[in-house]
Structure formats: structure tokens, C-alpha cells
Amino acid sequence: xxxxxxxxxxxxxxxGSLRLSCAASGRTFSDYHMGWFRQAxxxxxxxxxxxxxxxxxxxxxGSVKGRFTISRDNANNKVYLQMNSLKTEDTAVYYCAAQLxxxxxxxxxxxxxxxxxSS
Length: 119
Known about the structure:
- The protein is mainly beta.
- It has no helices and eleven strands.
- It has strands spanning 2-7, 10-13, 18-26, 32-39, 46-51, 57-59, 68-73, 78-83, 92-100, 108-109, 113-118.
- The strands form two sheets. Strands 2, 4, 5, 6, 9, 10 and 11 form a seven-stranded mixed β-sheet that branches. The protein has a four-stranded antiparallel β-sheet with strand order 1-3-8-7, with no helix packed on it.
- It is globular and about 40 Å long.
């Protein structure tokens, strides 16, 4: 198993930037693909993006593409979500999740961190 803890959320004005961090502990971090998800109030949780164990990024087809990037530091068991040009609609609780190589699902989740973008 792997334990995940997000940090870095907060209040930011539209157009600003934030970097979220996710610290992992437990099993070998490099065995996992890492994903970021978000859930806005009253909405379903949605996929934001993913970085494979080898550093290949994929993003949802929605509005985050071109504004968000994901990176990972396998030596320090961390994954990051850099969010630029933030919009009010990016307001949500952001979660990181871990997907063991070879599995189809993200089975391990952090507790989430709130991101609020004001106009």
C-alpha cells in the first residue's frame, strides 16, 4: 500500500498560480503511476491528469490542458501539480491518487486539498 498526503492548496486570484504537492509513503513510489483529480462542490469527481512512472503526462481533454503540468520526484516520493492561469471554475478539492503499474484503477487516495480561485 501507499499513503498519500496533498498540500499547497489555498486561495488565489483568477489568473494566478498554485503548485500542489503530494507526498507518498509506503511501497516503492516508482511502482506507481500518479494521478490528480478534483471535485467541485455539488459535482462529480473528475480526472485532471496523470503522470506515469516514467514521467509521461496525460491530461483530461477539458480546460486544464495547456495550463496545468504534472511532475514527479521519484527520489523524494513526491508528485506535483503546477496550475497556471487559474480560473474560478478551477475551484475544487484536489486529490492525488496512485495507480499500481499494471492495474486499471487508482486504488490509493489522499485526503484532498482545497483550491479556491476568486474573481
